[in-house]
Amino acid sequence: MSTLAMSTSRGQVEIKSFLRDRTAVIFTFFFPALLLLLFGTIFGSESTDGGVAVSRIFTASMIAYGVMTTAFVTMGTGLALDREDGTLKRLRGTPMPATAYLIGKALLVLVLSIAEAIVLILVGVLVFDMPLPPAANWLAFSWIFVLSVVACSLIGIAVSGLVKNARNAGAILNVPVVALQFISGVFIHPMSQLPDWLETVASIFPVRWMAQGFRYVFLPSDASAQELGGTWNLGGVALVLGIWCVVGLALCLVTFRWSSRDK
């Protein structure tokens, strides 16, 4: 079999295995949607100075949260579990190359991320009357989404090598995810409400730029006044996410281990 065929086959196995775990399915798909419903309902009647409904801002921003949790946490915990239960070690002794295994995991993450984004957008449209963006904005959504998924997946692979106990992987990986949502403009917007030093810290990580990019897609152009610097800065979004893709790949090469005993 070719590497592509093995990758596709492995991806199908990963998807089927994930769908059989009802707890993982519920947490992955419905928890971000539940948070959106809560935030949107509590603050939905409010509007920003530009007249944009807060529920619409939350919908756009929560897509970044959905991608981060799906790509980073799913990839990180999945690899940690496969490493601890010996799956990775057994696969190493088969004709399947590491590339095919990782692409299979990436296919799972991509499918889940697309499904997660669809769920959140549907909640925004059906519950909070969020209008869909024009066709031109969907092109921007595509490259922001792809860069976000790739960056978060690579970081998840890298961090999985540092997790010593797979049973605690989910809890460990969710800590930075939740913390970043509060300082990156997902749960608190505009970010100008935060101390300057927190704005600087948030700007280092991809979540702030992911959320800003998705807000560009779904919010009116004059809503950029609420962003840091008063612009959407799509060039900065592309640059930072691209850098994190490279950094994530470099970290993967350094930290990836086939088994928990590897050093």
TrEMBL record:
UniProt subcellular location: Cell membrane; Membrane
Primary subcellular site in the record, as a coarse category: membrane
Membrane topology of the entry: Multi-pass membrane protein
Any Pfam family matching the protein: ABC2_membrane
UniProt keywords, alphabetically: Antibiotic resistance, Cell membrane, Membrane, Transmembrane, Transmembrane helix, Transport
Boundaries of every ABC transmembrane type-2 domain copy: 23-259
Lineage top rank: taxon: Bacteria
TM helices/strands, residue ranges: 24-45, 57-81, 102-128, 140-163, 170-188, 234-256
PANTHER family named in the record: ABC-TYPE MULTIDRUG TRANSPORT SYSTEM, PERMEASE COMPONENT, NODULATION PROTEIN J
Assigned protein family: Belongs to the ABC-2 integral membrane protein family.
Protein name: Transport permease protein
Organism name: Actinoplanes couchii
